[in-house]
Amino acid sequence: MKNERQFRKILLALNHFLTFFILVAFVISCCMMLFLSTFADSLDLELTNENLNSAAKITFLNVILLSLLFTIIDAVRRKLTVKRPVKRITEASQKIVQGDFSIRLQLQSTVWSDDSFNEIIECFNKMAEELSSVETLRTDFIANVSHEMKTPLAVIQNYGTLLQAPDLSEEKRIEYAKAITDSSRRLVDMMTNILKLNRLENQQIYLNTEEYDLGEQLCECLLQYENVWEDKNIGIETDIEDGLTVKADAELLSLVWNNLFSNAFKFTESGGTVSLSLASEDEFAVVKVRDTGCGISSDIGAHIFEKFYQGDTSHATQGNGLGLALVKRVVDIMQGEIGVESTLGEGTNFTVKIRR
Ligand code: ADP
Fold this sequence. Notes:
Blueprint: H1 2-43, H2 49-97, H3 116-163, H4 170-202, E1 209-213, H5 214-223, H6 226-231, E2 235-240, E3 245-249, H7 250-266, E4 273-281, E5 284-291, H8 298-301, H9 323-333, E6 337-343, E7 347-355
Parallel strand pairs: 2-4
Antiparallel strand pairs: 1-3, 4-5, 5-7, 6-7
Helix pairs in contact: 1-2, 2-3, 3-4, 4-9, 5-7, 7-9
The chain binds adenosine-5'-diphosphate.
């Protein structure tokens, strides 16, 4: 196969040389004949057989020599301006095929070759960059998922072993079983979030749009946290504009509200307050979820919408860093806006704008 390709390459090169040689020879012959006939006419030379013979020989030799010279010059030119860059690009592409995405090509000097190769090289470099960032995302994602899975799995393993002890008190048995259930729930939550995020990121989303009362939906979502705010003694404040409807996918939007409320309650200490407001602003419905929790520093704030990012490690066991990534994705799909204002130690305010 390789030999065959080599042979075809040689044949192609020969074909190119011959065609070029014949073309140049033809052009030079025409020029010479034209020149000789005008030259003979102007000198009024007698065209004897002898004269003609020697002129033909010289002309033929000149034609061969000049054609060869031009063919060689063209071959060198082609090697420098076409074959060399093509070889560089082919070799680099082969490296990409083998999984080396770090490869980048230097731009050609435009003195020798035209700009088209530089356009190809620029595209190639962009492609390599894109592939390498996708690869980094993929490996980071695998590392993050494995890391997030390790802790709950270790807990399940340890408590499972403890549960096997023969003379275990009822109290301990319940405690260990609860730890196992909590960790399994964490794993299930994480998998559900990963699947949701994957669906939202990689698939064509068909929005199930309907017109509905946003205030009602917000209140329903908030009420799901009644137990939490009662247990933690958190105060609730609401300011909801009546009858504000939006045309949106209710199921997707409920993901946004649930994640914002769950964070607000998670990061607010007992005795704090969580407030919810809804108002219309031009073509937007503006939802604000405020809390008087620990707040977010500006360093952390810059990353909170990234996958698996957890700024506050003291609450790490209660989440997996996917909530706000999901929220952001849904808001983007709905062509809305999300912003966050926060002061460390004082609280956080998330503002979501949804097109009505
Ligand atoms: P998780 O809550 O599972 O850690 P999220 O993606 O929901 O993941 O949030 C990412 C990070 O953003 C959190 O770890 C936390 O540091 C920060 N954060 C989000 N909401 C709040 C909030 N209301 N108050 C303080 N910090 C918050």
